[in-house]
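Worked Example 4.2. Consider the chain below.
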Amino acid sequence: MPGPSTPSPAPATPPGSQLTVRRLVLLSIPAIVIGALSAVTLWGLNQVADQLETGLWTNLPKSLGIASDSPWWIFAVLTFTGIAVGLVVWLVPGHAGPDSATTELAATPLPLSVLPGLAVVVMLSLAGGVSLGPENPIVAINVSLAVAIIARMSKAVPPALIGALAISATIGALFGTPVAAALVFTGMVGEFKMGGSLWDKLFLPLVAAGAGSVTTYLLGGGFGAQSPFDPYGGPQAFDLLTGSLIACAAAAFGLVGIYLFPLVHRAFHALRHPLLFTALGGVVLGLLGAIGGPITLFKGLDQSAELLADPSAYPPGQLAIILLVKMAALVVAASAGFRGGRIFPAVFLGVAAGLLGGALIPGLPLSLAVACGILGVVLAIARDGWVALFVAVALVDDITVLPMLCIIVLPTWLVVTWAREMLITPDDLARERPGARLPWEPASSVR
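Applying the procedure from the previous section yields the following structure tokens:
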């Protein structure tokens, strides 16, 4: 899956290795361990972030006699969050790892000394209302921990395989099902240098993802379907046209943010110091949040449920404002030095785009309209058709939309296939500021 949510293909075992039944059984043990530990790490990070969020958005404003949805409080919290994240990136050992704008979902293992700072800035961002999800940082944390722990316990498990299993386990934990991991890894296993069939190559990643998703379920988490709509029912030929229009328009809207991304990143990083550009990012996010309201804050999963709970409460004009504010917030958050992923905000944008499309095109069932909106935005940002299809169907909880989406994804893919990805490349960094890296930048940031 190329793009910001894509694991970089890497051999899961050394060239020439064969996946015998005995080897698969033996390697299933570390795969289960990695899956469970990855889910626990994600759960723990979310628990701390949730407690901090309750303090910032419920307890503290209540004690001060301030409404938590007040524009001034939204501005203050996001500004504070930007300053706090900037201080951690500047002063904490490891500087919270590489800029998430420059990384894909997969990551090379980080030194363990980097992980505390990375975890702190992710929890601050999640709690403070920043429009990013936890996916990129938690994958980096889990890959680093898994390699450090498993490699020391057993030299028989290749580090590349450990990293692949941690990625798969974290995806399974994030979505509460191994299906998403299976879809991601189906596109990768062809490049794994090992023998065996497709399912031989998928076996261990699915074991890890299954262990991660089961552990997440036992801990009370999961992605969760959120749609209140009636099932779409039988496919209608005219809906292919209207659904394609919504999906293609949503994808094109996503591409607008993607093409603005390097320009905004360059503007913030012209300040050169993480405290300055991340604090400024917090100020801008605070202004955007004050305009768009609480529904435009945070990673977007709970806010998607809020939109879907009562679509009639959001007229087209308000949905358009929500879309513009949230897209701006995503681009700013991803550009200004915060650590986080872009997939969960993309899902929220897709929900809003689908509701807007359904309001503008009478007669199109809202379940299909929302699924098409999610398909378009996620396809643009994740650049993976399988994942876009999975998220669209999972969120509306309506399998009857799948046959239509399998066709609608084709013209939508033509909209995005030759566009740039939502990723700051080494060439982008070189254009921003040629020369040596600054002291707080990781060695991987080549300028």
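The mean pLDDT is 86. The chain is about 65% helix and 0% strand. Compare this with Example 4.1 before moving on.
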